[in-house]
């Protein structure tokens, strides 16, 4: 079978692109942040350009600048409210973690002395009781390590990102040009396909764009809502680190299914470090918050933007975490949603025809 030179060239370009992508890992954050901001701001820019002021439509560049002003206002407001108390609480938390772990160990010993040992001595379910306690001890220990590592990774990722002044300059500039030449970029991508495939390619690209835009906008709103409710709840319970725990809860929302559980564990541990009663109150609060999210907030905010089965979501999270850690888990859902659209058009529809 004869292979055309065009096909070979395209294959080389694709392989080279992915090689550069794997090697140049430092460019991930600014590019992803720019693309993400573009998808969030594009609907705003699109609506603004359709508004008439004195019978004149708002131009593309003024619309982009207005959208930027809107984004900067929100970001500045959030940073001014969060940064100082968040840094203070993180410093305080890291100092107190060893003492908290000692308190948790003491609590486990208390459970062992007052619950497990009496059951073992009575001879009823002796073997099962010992196994349950060991499993409980391991689960709490591993959950604490995973949750605090997640907090540490997110914090270090955020602060290292904020410390890179060049990248902070690149993001708005790149976002501006992506918004300005949005249609040009889309048309260029479509032109890469053959004339026969361009109509289908256009349909897929716009469908992917809609999914990503809806997902990112919904995810942003979800993080804000959950973060706010979490802060109010933790502050009212006087848990000691409401900003840290609320920020972790908000950020963990980006990791579906697993995220809310991972963010609940350190909150419960910090509650238990104060008292068993507070730990139980925090656990009940986290449980009801998750139910509120799953049955009320999530359907209204996110709708069916990704349309993926929970099993698919969990597998994609595991794969993303294996390759890129926390960043991979954050990217897993949108990437899987895009692959799902691609497969729907090029695999399932082809089989039907």
From TrEMBL:
Signal peptide: none annotated. The keyword Transport applies. It is a multi-pass membrane protein. GO terms for biological process: transmembrane transport. Keywords: Cell membrane, Membrane, Transmembrane, Transmembrane helix, Transport. The keyword tRNA processing does not apply. GO terms for cellular component: plasma membrane. The chain crosses the membrane at residues 7-22, 28-45, 65-87, 215-235, 241-262, 269-290, 310-343. Pfam families: AI-2E_transport. It is found in: Cell membrane. Belongs to the autoinducer-2 exporter (AI-2E) (TC 2.A.86) family. This is AI-2E family transporter.
């Amino acid at each position: 079978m004869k292979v055309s030179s065009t096909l070979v060239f395209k294959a080389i370009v694709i392989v080279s692109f992915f090689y550069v992508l794997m090697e140049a890992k430092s460019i991930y954050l600014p590019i992803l942040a720019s693309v993400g901001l573009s998808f969030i701001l594009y609907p705003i820019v699109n609506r603004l350009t359709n508004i008439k002021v004195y019978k004149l439509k708002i131009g593309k560049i003024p619309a982009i600048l207005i959208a930027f002003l809107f984004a900067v206002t929100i970001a500045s407001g959030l940073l001014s409210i969060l940064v100082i108390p968040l840094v203070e609480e993180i410093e305080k938390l890291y100092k107190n973690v060893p003492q908290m772990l000692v308190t948790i160990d003491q609590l486990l010993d208390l459970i062992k002395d007052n619950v497990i040992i009496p059951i073992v001595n009575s001879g009823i379910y002796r073997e099962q009781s010992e196994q349950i306690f060991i499993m409980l001890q391991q689960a709490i220990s591993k959950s604490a390590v995973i949750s605090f590592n997640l907090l540490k990774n997110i914090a270090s990722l955020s602060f290292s990102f904020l410390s890179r002044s060049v990248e902070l300059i690149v993001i708005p500039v790149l976002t501006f040009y992506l918004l300005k030449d949005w249609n040009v970029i889309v048309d260029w991508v479509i032109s890469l396909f053959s004339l026969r495939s361009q109509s289908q390619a256009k349909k897929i690209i716009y469908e992917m764009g809609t999914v990503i835009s809806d997902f990112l906008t919904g995810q942003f709103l979800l993080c804000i809502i959950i973060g706010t409710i979490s802060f109010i709840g933790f502050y009212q319970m006087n848990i000691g680190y409401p900003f840290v725990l609320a920020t972790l809860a908000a950020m963990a929302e980006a990791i579906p299914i697993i995220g809310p559980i991972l963010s609940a564990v350190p909150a419960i541990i910090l509650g238990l470090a104060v008292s068993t009663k507070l730990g139980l109150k925090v656990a009940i609060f986290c449980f009801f918050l998750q139910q509120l999210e799953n049955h009320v907030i999530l359907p209204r905010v996110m709708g069916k933007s990704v349309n993926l089965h929970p099993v698919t979501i969990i597998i994609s999270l595991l794969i993303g975490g294996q390759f890129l850690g926390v960043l991979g888990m954050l990217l897993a859902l949108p990437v899987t949603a895009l692959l799902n659209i691609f497969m729907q058009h090029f695999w399932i529809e082809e089989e039907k025809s």
